[in-house]
Amino acid sequence: MALNDRKIRILQAIINDYIETAEPVGSRTIAKKYNLGVSSATIRNEMSDLEEMGFILQPHASSGRIPSDLGYRLYVDHLMQKKELSYEEQSMMQAMISRNISQIDYLMEETAKAISMMTNYTTIISEPISRGTRIKQIRLLPLDSGSVLLVIATENNFIKNHVIKMGEAPEDMKVFEMGRCLNNVLQGHSIGEINRDLIARLQSELAEYAPLLPHILAAIESTMRAAEKVQVHMSGTKNILAFPEFSDIEKARALFQALEEKDVLVTLLEEGKDNGLQVLIGSENTVQSMKDCSVITATYKMGDDTRGTIGIVGPTRMDYSQVISVLNGMVQNIEKVLRDLSDGNKGS
Amino acid sequence: MALNDRKIRILQAIINDYIETAEPVGSRTIAKKYNLGVSSATIRNEMSDLEEMGFILQPHASSGRIPSDLGYRLYVDHLMQKKELSYEEQSMMQAMISRNISQIDYLMEETAKAISMMTNYTTIISEPISRGTRIKQIRLLPLDSGSVLLVIATENNFIKNHVIKMGEAPEDMKVFEMGRCLNNVLQGHSIGEINRDLIARLQSELAEYAPLLPHILAAIESTMRAAEKVQVHMSGTKNILAFPEFSDIEKARALFQALEEKDVLVTLLEEGKDNGLQVLIGSENTVQSMKDCSVITATYKMGDDTRGTIGIVGPTRMDYSQVISVLNGMVQNIEKVLRDLSDGNKGS
DNA sequence: GTTAGCACTCGATTCAAGTGAGTGCTAACA
DNA sequence: TGTTAGCACTCACTTGAATCGAGTGCTAAC
Known about the structure:
Largest sheet of chain A: 5 strands, antiparallel
Number of strands of chain A: 10
Structural class of chain A: alpha+beta
Radius of gyration of chain A: 27 Å
CATH architecture of the largest domain in chain A: 2-Layer Sandwich
Largest interface: A-B, 46 and 46 residues
Number of domains of chain A: 3
Oligomer: homodimer
Number of helices of chain A: 12
């Protein structure tokens, strides 16, 4: 059975209508609303074929049809026309995430909020992380009589600090001196590269403070590890309750349950991390309790190997075209903001 | 009409039963389940009195009674018996929030998660903030050719950094020298105290770098301001959907809407910030869309004037006694962890 | 190949009757 | 005077039958 032009037009009509109304679409509705130049009876015949081919489903014997996951897949891959963002949307986007943002976690919060506001779906976003970033600067500062502060700046301008408690801290000038040593030895290396050779060099250079060295190494390691941990932000969960597909409170609860687990969020975002933009429809995603949801993910970059992912979660009946355009726009936006951020902070 | 002993016992029975079952309580239920030694008819008479006094309500003419806000108030203030935490609960609490926590935002996340897991309500928690903290150490580090890093440690060991972009950064030793100057002048002062005199002193001491001074001052100000901004964490929103009072999806939606606004959360927590432990029942809290909820807040301290607030949100029919004991236990726990954290970090 | 017409299906809505938990009132009782 | 048994009454909720209507599949005619 061939998927001729008319079948495609009918499938498109069904999907468009169902996305809009969330009601199964009947042949008569299509005949009236979409001018295909044929009668409802003809459309019925075509629909029967489309069902046989697996693109649409009948929730029960005498109802209209709804798109199947396969139908949405065809739609997303071939039928859907890309929407352009309106001027209003673009400037709204910029206004929302560019004001006043100097810290990465605020930026994430604001971005997630902006997306869920514009799309009315739920947004999750992971902070940019990079495996194997190199150390740009590593220094020690005197803090008080019993502790010093380790400050590490990586090449993509992530800055982390760690308080090192050390019984009795060396005097200020010595702390600086140690810091300078550390910096000389470790600058330009990633955490994975801290091997015996480097440690031996540190031990000889910092011989005077040998007992402190393990403290310092432990602090470096834990700091770099923390920098590699994925931080996830979410916004717009309330939107879920607005969709008729979740008017059954048990379904809503299951979804909320899933979305409250960080692991689940990370999994969802990970699934999309290779491709630039990925659409997972219904059961295509691996999270069991989200078989009725689609997830659209996009990766944003910050420098060469530092990246994060944005995901939008909604019912399979989601406005793919709009979501994709918002997502594309937002990726560009966030990449720009991140560039500005890592080039040097605002207000200075 | 006097609130005699029997009336109180009946009220208590109604509240206990209603908290447990979420169903209006009838006179016959009370007569059977709670051995008051009188018949249901007598109880009916007493209930009629209690209703007249405003402690209980009848949802409709021929149903049982439910407690009113006033009834809960009496219960919380006078009738409720304090529950002790079981040994299991205590150790569970400690296990959950003590492992692996070296950063304050993780601590907050974990605490909120632990509380909502133990109570099955929704938890919000604000990070500790302090107005007018003093600067303990303030330093500059060279970062790269075009920027330096400002690091500020406050007396309660909050550490913040800020990248200062400055066209062409001075050479390393000069940066250190500037940092030392800054530290000499500003150490021990709070942001509010940075006045003309101090600025003048900085200007004369840093005369050589006068054009950079505004950059530095702006960075200090923005950093200290950020440190004073309230950060709020939330966990367990999904629990809301489990309560029959929110089986009406519109009610749930309204509540979710409210809880997604950071302002609302801050308001809720602020309302409780004076007292150690505060119970706001139903319409006692000022958030319009939360008239059916009770909010229990407790303040935790970290040093003298640094504090944060934990709030638990649930339906007015909440298990006040359990929530209060969990909250008290958790405040002690978190204060201990914070003490350890600010004394010096673990793992070092 | 397309269409009009028709019988049929089946979820959703409506309505009336029935059920039961609970009340208020009254009269009898200790 | 306080307590209780008994009874009529209320009202949300359940149940089941009738009806509605959107939609289908099939057939016969164009």
